[in-house]
Amino acid sequence: MAIRINDTDVAVPDDPRVSLLDLLRDGLHLTGTKVGCNQGACGACTVLIDGKRSLSCLTLAVQADGRSVTTIEGIGSAAQPHALQSAFIEHDGFQCGYCTPGQICAAVAMLQEIADGIPSYVTADLAEKRILLSSEEIRERMSGNLCRCGAHNGIVEAILHHARENAA
Predict the structure, then answer these.
(1) Which among 9, 53, 66, 106 counts the fewest CB atoms within 10 Å?
(2) What gap in Å lies between CA 139 and CA 141, rounded to an integer?
(3) Structure confidence at residue 127 (pLDDT)
């Protein structure tokens, strides 16, 4: 049994009670994924499992067996940041930076959801295949990721900028 974490196979813990968050932080020392509320309410622990956002504090490591997990460390680095990470810096999408890894992981998945035509609660036309990205759409889709510092406006601007720069 193995979990593919940031393109590296990792053994599933023997203890089935270990959360994915604890495996990442304590077992693998991937500390980019943050412990926030540890109850699934803040989004600080957001990672990607098979490209979809997931709260690692509510996910048992054994549930990721045979799947691909991407943490912020797998999205970009200080030497080679992901374009979304650069946009967060450019648009002041962080203040203390604690929620930023979860915000970026969620934003990567959210942009893929939009590209796949998956509507949200505020999507105007549910039959439309191409969803128009707006501040309202981003705010709705990112509502599960909280920022206690109040950098939400910068986060929305960073995501909008990144999406416009990378539009096909």
Answers:
(1) 9
(2) 6
(3) 84
| Three-state secondary-structure class, residue 72 | helix
Q: What is the amino acid identity at position 118?
A: I
The two three-digit tokens of residue 89, written as one number: 């810096």
Mean pLDDT throughout 86-111? 95
CATH superfamily membership of 2-75: Beta-grasp domain (3.10.20.30)
For residue 94, the model assigns a pLDDT of: 86
Q: How many residues does the chain have?
A: 168
Q: Which two tokens stand for residue 168?
A: 């096909």
Q: What is the pLDDT of residue 168?
A: 52
Tokens of 93: 């999408």
**pTM of structure:** 0.95
How many whole angstroms separate alpha carbon 100 and alpha carbon 161? Answer: 16
State in words which class domain 83-165 has.
mainly alpha
Neighbouring-strand partners of residue 55: 46
